[in-house]
Amino acid sequence: MTTFVPRRVDDLERLLGDPADPTNPVGTRAVLEADERAEMLEAGEKALHVFGLNAEFVPPEYGGRLTRVDHLVEVMRAVHRRDPALALGYGASSFIAGVNIWTASPGEQAARVARSLLSGGRVAVAFHELAHGNDMAGTEFTAAADGADLLLNGRKEVVTNIRRAQDLLVLARTDPRPGPRSHSLVLVDRASTPGAGIRDLPRFLSVGMRGVQLGGLEFTGVRVPATAVLGPTGAGLEIALKALQITRTALPAMATGGLDTALRTAIAHLSSRTLYGGAAIDIPHVRSVLVGVFADLLRAEAISAVGIRALHLVPGSASVYSAAVKYAVSKVLLDAMDRLAELLGAHFYLRGGPTAIFQKLLRDLAPVGFGHIARAACQMSVLPQLPLLARRSWLTGDSAPADLFALDAALPALRYDRLALHAAGRDPLAASLAAALDEPWDSSDRQLRAVAETDLAELTSLAGACAALPMTELGVDAPPEAYDLADRYIALLGRISCLQVRRHATDPFLADSPWLLAALHRSHRNTPLAGAVEDALHRELLDRFHSHRSFGLAARTLTLREENAR
Amino acid sequence: MTPGTTDVRTWLTERVATYLRRTPEEIDTSLPMTDYGLDSLTALAVSADIEDEFGLVLPPEITWDNPSVDGLSRIIDGLLAEAK
User: Fold this and answer.
1) Taking the domain A240-546, which CATH number applies?
2) Which is the most buried residue in A143, A317, A508, B13, by most CB within 10 A?
């Protein structure tokens, strides 16, 4: 048993029961029926309440279980595997709000929110305004000082659980002047706030995540005490940008659970299907695509794992790594879902029958690319950091501590106060490549070493291109060529992450080469894998399928069928 | 570069003026640089220049909290005096 999977995930799996059991109120059939009704799965919410899922979002100093982000992510992957809408609609919004609150101000407000969450309450993140998207500085909602009070005016739109949450975390303009110190976070306690000036907007219906309650509120002269501001007045953007580093790392990492179920659904379908006189799963191309998706899932989790560990170990660089994780992992997941859909043919489109969960997962996974923060916004946030990262770190900087890659190593507590607006050119992850090549390598790893040397040549070439870039021209109007440099850099971070996870692995499968060779191959080519690599991964894939183990890094045993057999 | 408010401020005014494509004389050092259209990227570039020029490590939010040339110069002077 690896230490990056907490034992309580098994308790959660047991509570959720066998997904294949048609009488299970939290089984796949019930999940699909709730989706058809565009409702949250009520029995699922109850199960998560019994499990005390909200405690996963609360730091230990406030009585919760949020000690390690990798543990939180493994718990949430189990929920995603069942129903991504349940994960987002029950959990994610309270998690995002919580991270902002813990980042903003340790103190009485944080303690109050923690108590509410621990008793099953919800907090909604009222940041979004349709007119401004991810351009948070454009926020128009105002909180104007009026004596000892604040007057709230404006609209918040497409916000999860905004109608049913006990608390709202509102991003509001507290200063009419432009600039980074003109916004604040305001914690609105619905119970003690007069409801007269608050109007519910109609629910926003969506293509995927259909059960999630996306709503909006319009405030007209709503009075809250000035003490509702979290942290210093004017610190809203700073807090939001720091908290975002934790959430945009964790949320895509959780979403790999959906791909796990999609891959399982595809294998089950293709195993039972006879085409052209044989089992569909034995067609060489089908086999090749399935193995490719398996490698992609492992790659997505390896990239996530390093990003998650960086939050604990090198939080000062998380502004860069979190954007890279969101950008890279979301794309891997979306592409993998599309390739599975091609294999399933018409069966990816049917809303009934044994593959019906697939069309829901395809729709539910789409927001990983734009929800919370868009991929493009992440790419934009990496761009201006490239020159300093290149000059100060890539070829000469301090390498990362080994614990960044040793998945089973202990992690220090999260230090919200060590998150930084930018990395100031510190990039221990990229710098670890040159350092790794300076160390002795096992002779059996000659092939891997050659790949790593090619990557170092690419990093060297990229450093030459990036070091010379004028930082001031890397804003919204940056030339399209600059975006390619960000893409090349993020791809390298992903490749280095996978390589380093393998070099520091203790698990026999992860310490072996096939998954890594496949992951590195697939990070820049969509062509078939080498025969021996494909064979090794194919064996592992089918073994995990038949023994009901997850397809990600943890390879953990899922709900035990025999325990739930009726 | 020798530390001292005047020298630091003169140097910084010239850097900021270059980024803003203005002459140093046009910059009122008491006003927030954002009033001249200095955006967050230029602020990042300016703080990187300061670090490189003076061998300092600046807190990332320094230009947010000290938006004028005068304010930023005072902070740099303080850090240089500490480093002595």
Assistant:
1) 1.20.140.10
2) A143
Q: pLDDT digits over B30-55, tens only?
A: 998 888 878 888 888 899 999 999 99
**Is the Cβ–Cβ distance between A427 and A325 less than 8 Å?**
no
- The residue among A184, A380, A471 with the most chain B CBs within 10 A of its CB, best to mutate, is A471
Please say whether the dihedral angle defined by the alpha carbons of residues A370, A498, A307 and A465, taken in this order, is positive or negative. Answer: negative
3-state class of A170 per DSSP? strand
* Residue in B with minimal Cα distance to A239: B61
Q: How many residues does chain B have?
A: 84
At residue A1 the predicted structure's pLDDT band, cuts being 50, 70 and 90, is very low
User: Given its phi and psi angles, is residue A437 left (phi above 0), alpha (psi -120 to 50 degrees) or beta?
Assistant: alpha
Rounded Cα gap, residues A164 and A521, in angstroms: 46
- The rounded distance, in Å, linking the Cα atoms of A102 and A240 is 11
CB pairs under 8 A between A and B: 41
Q: Which residue of B has its CA nearest to A471?
A: B45
**Contact B41/A472, CB-based, under 8 Å?**
yes
Distances A159 to A137, A205, A296, A517, A546 between C-alpha atoms, Å: 18, 12, 31, 41, 40
- Domain range A125-232, CATH architecture: Beta Barrel (2.40)
Q: In this predicted complex, what is the ipTM?
A: 0.87
Question: Has residue B5 got a pLDDT over 80?
Answer: no
Relative orientation angle of helices A284-313 and A531-546, to the nearest 10 degrees: 80
Residue B21 Ramachandran class (φ > 0 left, ψ -120 to 50 alpha, else beta): left
Domain of B10 in residue numbering reads as: 5-83
Contact predicate A171/A162, CB 8 Å: no
Distance from CA of B62 to the nearest CA of A (A): 10
The CATH number of the domain holding residue B50 is 1.10.1200.10
Give the number of domains in chain B: 1
Task: Point out which residues pair with A201 in neighbouring strands.
Answer: A216
Q: Specify the pLDDT at position A31.
A: 98
CB contact under 8 A, B51 and A421: no
CA distances from A138 to A178, B27, B62 (A): 9, 27, 22
DSSP for B21-60 reads: TS-GGG--TTSBGGGGT--HHHHHHHHHHHHHHHT----T
Minimum-distance CB partner of A475 among B32, B39, B57: B39
Nearest CA in chain A to B45: A471
Alpha-carbon distance A180 to nearest alpha carbon in chain B (angstroms):
6
**Chain A residues in contact with B34 (beta carbon < 8 A):** 178-179
Which residues, listed in sequence order, are joined to residue A156 by a DSSP beta bridge? A217
CATH 1.10.540 boundaries in chain A: 8-121
Judged against a pLDDT cut of 60, whether residue A562 lies above it is answered with no
| CB atoms A420 and B40 under 8 Å | no
Separation in Å, CA A182 to CA A177, A233, A234, A530, B66: 7, 8, 5, 55, 14
Is the model's pLDDT at A15 over the cut of 50? yes
Instruction: Summarize pLDDT for A305-322 with one digit per residue, the tens.
Output: 999 999 999 999 999 999
